Amino acid sequence: MISYDKFVANKRLRRIVLLLAVIGLFYLLRSMMSMFLLTFTFTFLSVRLVRAVQRKFPKVKPVWVIAPVYLLIIAALTFAVANYVPQIISQTVKMFQSLQKFYQSDEMRSNIYLTAIYNYLQQINLDAQIKTAVAQAVNYISSVGVMGLNIFLSFLLSFFYTTQVEQMNKFGHQFLSSNYGWLFEDLRYYGQKFVNTFGVVIEAQLMIAVVNTTLTTITLLFMQMPSVIALAVMVFILSLIPVAGVIISLIPLSFIAYTVGGIKYVVYIIIMIVVIHMIETYFLNPQFMSSMTHLPIFFTFVILIVSEELIGTWGLIIGIPIFVFFLDILGVHSIEKNESKKKLSLKKFR
């Protein structure tokens, strides 16, 4: 019992043990990672919306805010699935077919620059990699039903939580006064850190992805590119990857642009990507990220590579937020500190 009291009194040790235990628990439940992350993301965005409305109208109950929004989302998803999903599938198939024809065409091999690219692709055995990618795509398509179920359950759980957010908070506070209140106090500590890092960064990256996709789609429409809907979906998904997503999207966009308008269109695509990257770097990141995750580019790419290896596809999206979360715990890079510094500088400026 004395050892237990010493352990409880040692706040730093018990928090380290608790963090390792939580990481181990998530590792054991890694098959449910998609549901956890989706539920957290939906709930975080919903609660932020409710709080924003309640600041203007304090007496409004969460259910009156969330219910109409969720009904609109369900209606929009139903309309999109019925009308645009078949178009996305057909356009994606056509896009891959056009890329394959261009890759195997004499026009590509007769061009000096494209020949060099072709030889390099041959050296890295691109054909085998494409076959592997196609096989993985088939596996992903076969798991669409499972992913759809995860999205539905996450959507439903976030709705129930947000509509009863006040009751959930009161219920959660009861654990703080229990016999193991120290445990739940530490869990709340990590929960607050997690929301201050992971939630805010994910929200900011979603906003950046929406802006990037909008600008790219407008440019593609002006260039009269084919399969715009499929390309827009691809750009949005890649834009969720910090920094690297915009660069990765350059490769398929350039190939498709060359099949449509030759080198001139490739130059247009490169200029578009450079402009969007500059907008993201000098406007969107400072505006949405609030100077929270200004990590060196070297660290950004290393984190993406390692997190993709450890977590999989999700690692490309959540790797940076998780890294910032651990930096916040270590006291190296705190969002709360950055936010307070930003507010202080604004006060001085005023």
Overview of this protein structure:
With 350 residues, this protein is mainly alpha-helical. α5 crosses α12. The chain has helices at 2-9, 11-28, 33-56, 62-83, 85-104, 106-110, 112-123, 126-142, 144-163, 165-174, 181-222, 228-239, 244-248, 250-261, 263-289, 297-311, 313-330, 335-349. It has one domain (2-349). Mean pLDDT is 75; it is low at 337-350. It starts with a helix and ends with a helix. It is a multi-pass membrane protein. The chain crosses the membrane at residues 12-29, 63-85, 140-161, 198-222, 228-253, 265-285, 297-327.
Set out the fold topology.
Blueprint: H1 2-9, H2 11-28, H3 33-56, H4 62-83, H5 85-104, H6 106-110, H7 112-123, H8 126-142, H9 144-163, H10 165-174, H11 181-222, H12 228-239, H13 244-248, H14 250-261, H15 263-289, H16 297-311, H17 313-330, H18 335-349
Helix pairs in contact: 2-11, 3-9, 3-11, 5-12, 5-14, 11-12, 11-15, 11-17, 14-15, 16-17
Transmembrane segments: 12-29, 63-85, 140-161, 198-222, 228-253, 265-285, 297-327
Membrane topology: Multi-pass membrane protein
InterPro entries: AI-2E-like
Quick synopsis:
The protein is mainly α and 350 residues long.
**How many DSSP helices?**
18
Q: Output the helix-strand order.
A: HHHHHHHHHHHHHHHHHH
Mean pLDDT figure: 75
Profile the largest sheet: none
Rg (CA only): 24 Å
Low-confidence runs: 337-350
Alpha carbon gap, first and last residue:
56 Å
Feature tags:
mainly alpha; AI-2E family transporter; 350 residues; disordered C terminus; transmembrane helix; 0% strand
